[in-house]
Design goal:
This protein is mainly alpha-helical and 501 residues long. The chain contains 20 helices and six strands. It has helices at 7-28, 32-43, 56-76, 80-83, 87-109, 117-126, 132-141, 150-160, 162-176, 183-214, 223-240, 245-257, 264-289, 292-295, 298-323, 331-339, 345-350, 352-357, 362-390, 475-486, and strands spanning 145-146, 394-395, 416-422, 444-450, 453-455, 468-474. It has a four-stranded antiparallel sheet, covered by helices on one side. A two-stranded antiparallel sheet has the order 1-2. α10 (183-214) runs antiparallel to α11 and α11 (223-240) crosses α13 (264-289).
Length: 501
């Protein structure tokens, strides 16, 4: 047992095992979420680790802290240009869609003698949100992409529906402690939370970028500290003005991701790594909180399978089809969006709210929701790629090369940036040497990725189909260079010397 082992040793071992599990998940095509939770359960009281942990309040606090950084990182990595065309549909799915999912789940659950309608709605609210990280980590693991607007739609919906699920869960808990539901007051409170949260997020995103440009920190290693303070301050400020903190950090991330500022690349990489750390910590703690003996209880398994089936095949599809009735999405796209409603860490975190409030059935609800999440990730996660192929919505995933160098905009670098350009079969530049390419002044090729090799370009280096060029230069000139490099022609000599002008 680990009771008398140094806690730092235990923490280091758990993090190491999580790192191994994350690498292993890609090889065995099992979502990392499952393996992280399994490590936590094995380290817990009923596992070989024997760690005793039953603190729902601490778990809730850790989950809230971690989720704020995960949502910020998700927003930071979101390309606004990709999201803009589907914002309206995404907002409908992330608000009305979440409410309808909760309501549709509550109706059959309320027919069971175990639950009142209030309890049933609380359960529905907790499992109403989806997990973008789970969806795209699974698709990435299975090397499958999705066509058209589906990817940004799923990213935006999954990233922005957590605030609605939190609001509904807290509302349901308040409803349980009162005899009536002040609908008008709740509606007004919802509008205030969302508007205030969105406004704070937008303001902090713009303000943070401006301050990074003006307040030059001497030691660039301190910029991650700046990044952490932005998330914490934004979340806290939104909550202080009765706004939704989760929405605020997500919007702040989107705004900052769409801006150009000093050390943006470094900050983005830091938050990506920190978000992974937060996911691991969150899943480990949630795994520790679970009692496997309670989880394999017959009543939990039986009801859990029924709830999972109804959620996957009825509640989520009905909500998606109703919310997408006026959109231009095809039937196949609606079916795929319905099937990608994977549940992740958020429902498990929300399941700790009844525990902290002392709800009579809180422990059973927690185990039931934990089981539903596991079922959703395993069944839907393992079949996502297959369903995408059946519906003809799968697309080839381009694996971006990992270059042995990185570029970040630093003071004095102006508007210079790097860009990757793929040389496709039939491109006019195929067969041309680097010296024959008449690039504008200030634009150059840094590296050439050819298969698994990286070539340092020389004057006599010939371009081949399938090469990926890492080019550097002024942003305004890179677009014309990219267009010329991808221009098709019958032979290399079709490329004129003035193509890049």
């Amino acid at each position: 047992m680990l009771e008398y082992v140094d806690p730092f040793l235990v923490a280091g071992l758990l993090f190491f095992l999580s790192l191994v599990a994350g690498t292993l998940s890609e090889r065995i095509k099992v979502p990392g979420l499952i393996l992280f939770l399994a490590i936590g359960m094995l380290a817990g009281e009923n596992g070989p680790g024997g760690l005793q942990f039953d603190d729902a309040v601490t778990t809730n606090s850790i989950g809230t802290f971690a989720l704020a950084f995960i949502l910020f990182s998700g927003g930071f990595d979101t390309r606004w240009d990709d999201v803009r065309p589907i914002v309206r549909q995404g907002l409908v799915l992330s608000t009305l869609g979440v409410f309808l999912t909760a309501l549709f789940m509550a109706l059959p659950l309320a027919c069971l003698p175990r639950f009142s309608f209030k309890d049933a709605f609380l359960l529905g609210a907790i499992i109403s949100s989806t997990d973008a990280a789970a969806v795209f980590s699974i698709l990435r693991t299975q090397k499958v992409g999705v066509k058209g607007k589906l990817k940004p739609l799923l990213e935006f919906e999954s990233g922005s529906n957590d605030p609605m699920a939190v609001f509904l869960t807290i509302t349901a808990l308040k409803w349980l402690s009162s005899d009536s539901v002040p609908v008008a007051q709740l509606a007004a409170n919802f509008v205030v939370q969302m508007v205030a949260g969105g406004a704070v997020g937008w303001m902090m995103g713009r303000l943070s970028c401006a301050m990074i440009e003006r307040l030059r920190v001497e030691n660039e290693a301190l910029y991650p500290v700046w990044g952490i303070s932005i998330v914490l301050f934004t979340f806290g400020l939104a909550n202080s003005v009765n706004g939704n903190g989760y929405l605020a950090v997500y919007v702040c991330g989107i705004v900052m991701g769409g801006q150009d500022f000093l050390y943006k690349y470094s900050l983005q990489r830091f938050h990506e790594g920190f978000a992974w750390l937060m996911q691991i910590v969150m899943f480990l703690v949630l795994g520790l909180l679970v009692n496997p003996v309670e989880l394999i209880n017959r009543s939990v398994i039986g009801l859990g399978l029924l709830v999972s089936a109804f959620l996957m095949f009825a509640a989520r599809p009905a909500a998606v089809f109703l919310c997408s009735a006026l959109s231009d999405s095809s039937l196949r796209e609606k079916l795929f969006v319905s099937w990608t409603g994977l549940r992740g860490a958020v429902p498990i975190i929300l399941a700790t709210y009844p525990l902290t409030e002392g709800h009579p059935q809180a422990r059973f609800m927690f185990n039931l929701i934990f089981f539903v999440v596991l079922t959703s990730v395993i069944l839907q996660g393992k079949t996502l790629a297959t369903v995408a192929r059946w519906l003809g919505l799968d697309a080839t995933v381009r694996v971006a090369p990992s270059y042995p160098l990185s570029f970040d905009r630093t003071p004095g670098s102006g508007s210079d940036e790097t860009r990757e350009v793929d040389i496709l079969p039939g491109a006019a530049v195929i067969g041309s040497t680097v010296s024959e390419l008449k690039f504008p002044e200030g634009v150059t090729i840094l590296l050439i990725n050819r298969g698994s090799r990286f070539l340092i370009p020389k004057g006599g280096t010939q371009l081949e189909a399938g090469d990926t060029l890492l080019i550097f230069g002024e942003r305004a000139r890179l677009s014309s260079v990219e267009q010329a490099l991808t221009e098709r022609g019958d032979a290399p000599q079709d490329l004129h010397s003035d193509s890049f002008e």
